[in-house]
Amino acid sequence: MDSFNWERHRTTLNKIFFRDKDFIKEGTKEYDDFWLFFKKFQVYEARRKSKESHSASSSNLSSSLDIPMQYHPRYRINISIVTKDIDEKVHSHRHHKEKKKRKRKHQSYDDDFGCEDDELSSERISQFRSVILHYLDFCQKQDFVKLKKLKTEQANLPIAHYKDEIVKAIKENKVAIVAGDTGCGKSTQVPQYLIEAGFTHVACTQPRRIAAISLSKRVAYETLNQYGSEVAYQIRFEGTKTKATRILFLTEGLLLRQIQQDHTLKQYNVIILDEVHERHLQSDFLLGLLKILSSSSHRDDLRLVLMSATINLELFSEYFQGSPVIQVPGRLYPIQVQYLPIPVEEQTGKTSRLDPRPYVRILQRIDKKYPSSERGDLLVFLPGMQEITTVEGASQAYAEETGRWIILPLHSTLSIEEQDKVFDMAPEGVRKCILSTNIAETSVTVDGVRFVADSGRVKEMSYDAQYKMKKLQEFWISRASSEQRKGRAGRTGPGVCYRLYSEDDYDALADYSTPEIQRVPLDSLILQMKSMGISDVRSFSFIEPPPEGAMNDALRVLTEHGAIDSDENITALGEMLAQLPVDVAIGKMLIMGSLFDFIEPVMSVASVLSVQSPYTRSAYNNPEACTRRRPIESDHGDPITLLNLFDEWIQMKSDSRSSSRKWCKRRCLEEQRFYEMANVKRQFQDLLKDNALLAAIDDKDIPETSYKRRQRHADKKRLRELKNEERFQSRKRKVLKRTDGKYEIDNSDDDNDNADDHPSTSITSNVKDLEFKIRHDLDKLYKASSVRRNFTLRDIIMLKIILVSGLYPQLAFPDDCNNYSPDSDQIFHTKNKLFVVLHPNGYFSHHPQELEPTGREDNSLKKEGQSGHRGLLGHRHQLLTYVSLLETTKPYLVNTMRVPALQTLLLFAQSLDTNADCRRIVADGWIEINLVDPNAAQSIIASMLQLRNAWDQLLKLRLEATKNESHEGFTLVRKSKKLQHFLSKKLAEFLDSRLEYRLRRFTTLERQKLYVGPGVNDDDVVEGGFGISMTKAAPDAVKGGMKLADYLTYNCLQELEESSLSGDYLRQFWTCPVCQIKMPMTVGERLRHQAACGGSNAEETNQETAADSKTSTSIPQLQRSYHCDVCDEDFMFSAVEILKHKRTHKA
Amino acid sequence: MDPKKFKCSSCGLTADYNHFGQTPLKTAKKNIVLLEKAYTMRNPFKSNDGEFLVVGAHCSICGDVVCVDPDCSLFYSKRFCLNCASNNINEFPLPIQKEILHNCKSR
User: Which ranges carry the Helicase C-terminal domain (chain A) (predicted)?
Assistant: First the structure.
């Protein structure tokens, strides 16, 4: 083609060739691609023509094949464009043009001079058409190559040779095991084989969400179903599953949830458990459940496939005896192993830090031996973050000196952007050195690694059931994981693995890593088992059962929380907790929150506590970010601070003028976490609604404005488009560049908040933003968060009480010697674990003064030689509640919140023990409350009894109401509303109490001599002695004294001094403040009466509260004097009370 | 439109095709025709339903089913499997002859 200016005619050509109904539409990506192709093609054609003119070998011989012998590339294309309407178009176009021309000629004569050559003649049009044909042909070829490549790759996978064997084994057996090492293709191919073999609903579990997503994408591509939903994934908050789905990749946790709902898993005909050798808690449990299911007669058609690496295969084949095992070789390149044990002088002692020198020597060794022109990166496995920082520092110096290395850390607390850097490319002649935790062993796969350096150590979380404390400890890795690490060097070519230990060390390693079930708390697992109807959890057939002790500990914890009863049967509360995919403590918080119509903020707190902390690694040493965060912090502690952060983020999100991304970045917060919080919260909301714990607010009541609806539809459409875009623009690898002595990604501008310029990050963040807006009603979230900004102190205290109701007994008591200054560690004691400190990143370790005890010195104790804060008398003693205990270098309290001591202990202690006059109260056998005034003490215990009774009843009512939705349920709801009203009011009074008291923690020695012992102080059993209502009481068989309630034992404490005159035997005239009964009673009797009198049922309490509301001092007006003939006593009774009193005599 | 199996007699490539004939696909844009009766499938690499991919056709000489891979067949106004093409190599214009030789070698 010549110099004809096609561009000039683009509009015309658009009208002819690129209309809506044409193959290539104007304005699409194909259209742009076409014009690119067009330009290249012109160049190519020009070259071809000049060549052809030299070697014009036109033979006019005719061919016997009936093909044109005059060669023209046109004949090589098997596609043609129907020309009829094009000709019409061309014609009309020309006609139009002529007219225009004529018109124009009238106006100006110079305009179109000598442009005849530039005319879009019919020859030109057909020329153009032929280019389109070439383009279409080119596209066809390109896509066919893709198809062929894909098919060849599939056929070349090691597993392809075993296809028939695998399919046969699965068809003929209920359970089959496929074992193959990295790169054999089992995860991608086996589901496809099964679909081809005629199975229609295949589920494949993955231990990691990322794997579920990426596998579903890969398999969809391989099955040529990239744009359909035949292959889908489902993870906690999102999924692509539709009715057409035949292969579903899902997380283990999700399959577990599905089993909970449908024990026989009718929706699948094959279940593949992938990576079972990793032995996660959930996969172990699934193995057990599916083993039972596959051997039961309910699902004779169900097929179970276990897929694992080739390690520890005997264990699985023994567990599923008689099941065929198909072993597939992996595909790894040869890896050379070198043992380079660390010399003694550089070895890390128990306390000293890791010596980075051996690691730097690896870099040097590689530099010496391998020319920098040979590509290949280094992956170093280190035990933990701290070691990574140490080695990073030392090797950074070497990297700067030589200019041959880029040092990149990789661990889970890095921000997602920072983590992604390990996938970028190093410039020519430079290698990446990735310093990683065991995250790179399985979860993150980095391509291009040729060298692996293995420290042989790992930091792993273990669990100390005695203290309910997580421990991050360093261990030797197992031989299996040492092999896995080595394998990382041979994925893309032959590699080298340097082991920083000796061959003897290697031989001494344990065969396999400890399975998760042996080292994590089992509370949630056991609760789930119970709720599935597995009553005898101890005899459940696990592949390897957990230690008996851990099971017992878990059962104990569940009993303490009221999730199972003393016979280990699941309670209504337990059933509800099992529905919530969170820790028992957090689940309990949610349920309690729903009792008080205070659920909105509780759900937010539960969400913020259920996701990883939003603080980035630099959050604590960036003073600017700290300053910016300060106004959001709450002096109540971390949970409330996190709640504030979340609320603030929502405010940012709903303000279209501000960027939540920037807001997060400036405060060193990871925005992703907030999206997660919003999702978790939404999930809580749905679950609570499903279980009728949250009134389903009818959104339909408030009609959506048409504007809003349009907006929502537009958002949804935009999201689809963006997601498609994101799919193609799978993160492009960038080239890392050196700046300021550190390597940064080229053209990224992290410090200037301009990350939005990154096309890929901005698409991803836009997708997240839109997804968020569609999934959540931002207005509602905004309102809730705004409401919380106006929270009164009382609201916050109420919120805190609900949080503690879940967290109890996770309480810590301050040490007497704390100085409450931020420069030193503040020491605390939990009941079982002494000497724990505030986590350095927590709110209180920066503001310990908030925890300083207040009150006045008490002289009576001073003379006994007690010092410090011990004797402080006041009404504001505080304890710390915490979300978890974590031991790293020290045992730390994580996510702490200060709570009022007296109220928390009285409301939630499992056991409360008193002396005769109730001035001494011991909570859970380790904290003593010392009140001054015996009358005040007795009345607060009475209030406590009422409150706890009412609370229990309300909980029962609510849980009952969730079970039946009929009109009976309705009366239950009405009843509970009344109770709720009463409780909220009483609780507020209780929390406002300004009683002065002293607070003391018992030493272990003191705890042993706490009680009077059985048979003492328990001989006044006067059942219904005065014919008035009283709770039952029985002697306590262990502590002595009288057990007045499950949690309250009266008069069982050893008296410290013989001062108590107002003993239990002394009856004094006393008037009940509720029913106005007046009679001589002992303290114990009074308490029993009051427990029964207040809040024993909703009707009664309702009347009382009605009366209360008139006169706040609770002196009812409706009472009159009444003489009872049976007991010969005078009372002040209301009409109803008279009837009630009479009834007690009849009974 | 039930997928049917296509199998190349030369390389063994299999694929589920959706349509056989001179029009690419029922859903495809109407203004495209093929110059041979071919096996087409919905283009799996495009999001648009109307996009198609020609996978193969019958050799105009021996009638065998071959895919469009240059190692298996060539199109020059008609489809020829590589075997028939090389058996009749002299019947083709020169540039095509060169190509046949080249492809035979690479196979």
Answer: 365-533
Task: List all residues 6 or more positions away from A355 whose beta carbon is below 8 Å from its beta carbon.
Answer: A342, A346, A347, A348
A165-178 pLDDT, tens digit per residue, is 999 999 999 999 99
Chain B residue nearest residue A140, CA to CA: B53
**Each residue of A428-450: pLDDT tens digit?**
889 999 999 998 988 788 888 99
B69 and A CB contact within 8 Å: yes
Is residue A236 located within the same domain as residue A294? yes
Q: How far apart are CA A441 and CA A445, in angstroms?
A: 8
A43 CA to chain B: closest CA distance, Å? 20
Contacts of A68 in chain B (CB under 8 A): 77, 93
Domain that residue A562 falls in: 520-579
A681 shares a domain with A597: yes
Residue pLDDT, tens place only, A829-873 = 999 899 999 999 899 999 999 998 887 776 554 444 444 445 788
- Residues 6 or more apart in contact with residue A171 via CB below 8 angstroms: A197, A303
Domain contains A791: yes
Whether the CB of A67 is below 8 Å from some CB of chain B: the reply is: yes
Nearest residue in chain B measured CA to CA from A725:
B47
Q: What is the extent of the structural domain holding B94?
A: 4-106
Pairwise CB contact (< 8 Å): A79 & B14: no
CB contact under 8 Å between B76 and A75, yes or no, is yes
**Chain A neighbors of B78, CB-CB under 8 A:** 65-67
- The residue among A522 and A734 whose pLDDT is bigger is A522
Which residue among A143, A144, A225 sits closest to B69, beta carbon to beta carbon?
Answer: A144
Higher pLDDT among residues A94 and A700, named by residue: A94
The DSSP line for A378-416 is EEEE-SSHHHHHHHHHHHHHHHHHHS-EEEEEE-TTS-H
Residue of A nearest to B77 (CA): A75
How many structural domains does chain A have?
Answer: 7
Answer with the one of A768, A786, A804 that is the final residue of a domain.
A804
Structural domain contains residue A255: yes
| ipTM at complex level | 0.96
> Across-strand partners of A305?
A176, A272
